[in-house]
Inverse folding.
């Protein structure tokens, strides 16, 4: 299944008192707009996207996101899309939407290289079995796929899957009406004001286009806004253009050669779950091993031989068994003892 989660912790500060005031923020001051007002989506706009995309789950904190994932059936999630605000350094499920910008104000909502999220990484890895082996996670926030990919990288390690994002800004707007008579100067329409009974009719409109002026498919108008025809009301229609698979542990399992799959998986498990493990000189492939075999070479170096099926038969449901088996093997390495650990 495809699972959509929307950020539910964004509030407008100060709050809009009515639709007319919110609409005014998007208008030219000459047509009754609020000067120096930059409109950004808040939680109700993200929720509207979710509704129009077939439904979504709300999450305002890392704990709530974990709860949504934990509540799914094992190996049921083929793609997880998380909708929220972001930049090249952080993706957040909550914050303050002010008239000049969006502010990330809640440490418990920050996704990326931050203490709260780093401490939660083992909890995300513990529920990786809710995802299929080839699942992906998409961060639907502005610039989450730009910069040094720090955000996507740590999220990839947390979910143990490939993570995708967007290099540029995701544009949002809303439809409203009715409008008043357009203001014209020298025969040209300058802006369109509200009619007295104007209200917002459609929330959850979003668009993503490249900002490269040399790209003929950029789809930007002269004022660097997407053409109205490019706005969508379904989050699954937007296609990411950045990717990071550094933490995707199932890359190893997908290798065509079973021996390569087993050896690579061994190193990925050591890296992800035992970052301070004792020194292992190398791995080998041994069809006669019951799973993992720890041996000492003539030069007193500790090696781990891996049964080919240890990689090829690993799934999201039994990955925890592979981790436990590697933990026991590394205990033997630490004690400089030879021995074998059967594959469950």
């Amino acid at each position: 299944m495809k699972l959509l989660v929307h950020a539910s912790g964004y509030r407008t500060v100060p709050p809009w008192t009515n639709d007319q005031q919110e609409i005014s923020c998007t208008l030219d001051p000459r047509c009754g707009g609020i000067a120096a007002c930059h409109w950004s989506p808040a939680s109700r706009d993200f929720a509207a996207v979710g509704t129009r995309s077939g439904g979504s789950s709300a999450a305002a904190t890392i704990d709530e996101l974990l709860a949504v994932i934990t509540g799914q059936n094992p190996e049921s999630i083929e793609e997880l899309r998380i909708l929220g605000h972001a930049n090249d350094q952080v993706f957040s499920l909550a914050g303050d939407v002010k008239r000049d910008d969006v502010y990330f104000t809640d440490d418990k909502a920050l996704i990326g290289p931050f203490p709260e999220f780093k401490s939660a990484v083992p909890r995300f890895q513990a529920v990786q079995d809710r995802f299929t082996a080839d699942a992906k996670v998409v961060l639907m926030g502005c610039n989450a796929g730009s910069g040094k990919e720090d955000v996507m990288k740590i999220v990839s390690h947390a979910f143990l899957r490939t993570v995708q994002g967007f290099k540029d800004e995701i544009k949002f707007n809303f439809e409203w009406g009715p409008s008043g008579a357009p203001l014209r100067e020298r025969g040209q329409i300058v802006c369109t004001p509200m009619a007295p009974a104007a209200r917002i009719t459609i929330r959850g409109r979003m668009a993503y286009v490249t900002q490269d002026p040399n790209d003929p498919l950029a789809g930007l108008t002269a004022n660097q806004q997407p053409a109205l025809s490019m706005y969508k009301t379904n989050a699954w229609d937007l296609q990411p253009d950045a990717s990071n698979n550094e933490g995707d542990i199932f890359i190893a399992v997908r290798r065509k050669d079973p021996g390569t799959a087993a050896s690579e998986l061994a190193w990925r498990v050591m890296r992800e779950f035992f970052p301070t493990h004792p020194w292992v000189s190398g791995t080998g492939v041994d069809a006669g091993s019951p799973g993992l075999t720890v041996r000492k070479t003539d030069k007193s170096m500790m090696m781990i031989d891996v049964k080919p099926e240890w990689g090829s038969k690993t799934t999201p449901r039994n990955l925890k068994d592979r981790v436990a088996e590697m933990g026991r093997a590394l205990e033997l390495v630490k004690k400089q003892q030879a021995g074998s650990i059967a594959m469950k």
